[in-house]
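One record is given unchanged without comment:
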Amino acid sequence: MLRGAAASGEDGLRELWEASEQQRHAGATMWITMLAGKREAPDGFDLGSAIDQMWLYMPPTRTAPALFMI
C-alpha cells in the first residue's frame, strides 16, 4: 500500500517508502553478514548478491516472518 501511495508523487510518502526500503536492505545486510560469518562460504559465494536476494525475499509487508525462514 505504501509503495502505491509513494508512486502518487507526494514527497512525504516517497521519502517514507525510500526510508523503508533502505531499512529493509540494512536488515538483509545484517542477516547475511551474520550468517556468512558462521561458516566458510561456498565457492562462488558473493556477499552482495546474497544480500540483494535476501532483500528480495523480505517483502515489506512481512519482513519478520521471512527472516525466520532462514
Observations:
- Residues 25-70 form one domain.
- The longest helix spans residues 11-36.
- The radius of gyration is 14 Å.
